[in-house]
Amino acid sequence: MKYIMPKGPEKNTKNKALHTKLLNRKKAKLQEEKKAKAMRLKVLVAKMNEQKNNDESIAK
User: Fold this and answer.
1) What is the sign, positive or negative, of the torsion defined by CA atoms of 41, 46, 48, 49?
2) What is the DSSP string of 6-47?
3) What gap in Å lies between CA 1 and CA 56, rounded to an integer?
4) Going by C-beta distance under 8 Å and a sequence separation of 6 or more, which residues neighbour residue 12?
5) How many whole angstroms separate alpha carbon 30 and alpha carbon 4?
6) Residue 5: DSSP 8-state
7) CA distance 30 to 23
């Protein structure tokens, strides 16, 4: 028994460019969120270190 290919367009060829564009946009958004989170953490750590140094200098 031989399988007959269905007639009509292949799956996801019409919308493939749009799909790729949307996926790339999603990836870029996730990377931006990751960078923003890292920057917030970096600022927070710097602030906490500064506060710790100030507390130590006051305690001396």
Assistant:
1) positive
2) PSSPPTTSSSHHHHHHHHHHHHHHHHHHHHHHHHHHHHHHHH
3) 83
4) 19
5) 42
6) P
7) 11
Task: Report how far residue 49's alpha carbon sits from residue 42's, in angstroms, rounded to the nearest whole number.
Answer: 11
| Distance from C-alpha of 10 to C-alpha of 16, rounded to nearest angstrom | 11
Query: And the tokens for 55?
Result: 């507390």
What digits encode the pLDDT tens for the residues 16-43? 888 889 999 999 999 999 999 999 999 9
pLDDT band at 49 (very low <50, low <70, confident <90, very high): very high
* Residue pair 12/19 in contact by the 8 Å Cβ criterion: yes
